Amino acid sequence: MPKAKVIIFDLFETLIHDIKFDFTSGLLYLHENVLFEATDKLELLNYADTYWKNLYDKRNEDNSELPFEEELLDFKNKYGFKVDLPTEEIQYNCVLTMNPTELFNETISTLEKLNSLGIPVYLLSNSIFKKNVMKKFINQYELEKYFVNTYFSADYKVRKPHKDFFQVVFDDIQKDNKGIENEEVFFIGDNYDADVLGAKNFGFTPVFLNRKHVDGINNKGFLEINSLNELFELMT
User: Fold this and answer.
1) 140 and 73: one domain?
2) To 5 degrees, how large is the angle CA 177–CA 178–CA 180?
3) Three-class SS of residue 227?
4) 98, 114, 144 — which closes off a domain?
5) Going by C-beta distance under 8 Å and a sequence separation of 6 or more, which residues neighbour residue 204?
6) Contacts of 141 by beta carbon, 8 Å cutoff, 6+ apart
7) pLDDT digits (tens, 9 = 90+) for 73-127
8) 229/164 Cα distance (integer angstroms)
9) CA distance 121 to 175
10) Which of 53, 56, 114, 117 is deepest in the core (most CB within 10 A)?
11) What pLDDT digit, counting tens, does each position of 9-21 carry?
12) What domain range includes position 159?
């Protein structure tokens, strides 16, 4: 097994636990706090659940990404805003409303230890929100300081497991790590298809974070851990 020279983490269900994800609650926040009072709630929800849902569903066909910012600007043109707030602030409030989260217990200690070992750490996450919003989101837990850089699919309109998204972070890694080989980059994630198979197909060494102890899913025998604490056993 190659030695890990660089670590890349997925975000959701890897470092941060999704307590729940409720897209509708974000739309209701917009209706109550952002859109003009005359906006009909049911019409808004129906429009989002038909026109925009169809666009989001297409992501599964080609692993493209659709930034929420585009939907928000469409709402602004269609319904109008009653507030004069930056779209970044509105989106941040949306993501907090639709996606309450909490840190896993071992997240900070794992990142602290990797930093103390001098191992560069990056973040690569699928997200409909761009980096300017997601930086604020992860910094509610003061996470950004642990990463050399962070990448979110909305900024590139492509999402894991698409190779182009992995290429974005590897290009950056190579700038500071001349001659590094793909397999010397370990990718840790919980989603077997997007994270594990995606990383493997690109050439990274995948580490499957199987927190739920699901049997039979890792049928190709990739490196597997049940918590981040076990990561360091693989690296010794």
Assistant:
1) no
2) 70
3) coil
4) 98
5) 8, 166, 170, 182, 183, 185, 186, 187
6) 16, 103, 107
7) 999 999 999 999 999 999 999 999 999 999 999 999 999 999 999 999 999 999 9
8) 30
9) 14
10) 114
11) 999 999 999 999 9
12) 6-19+102-234
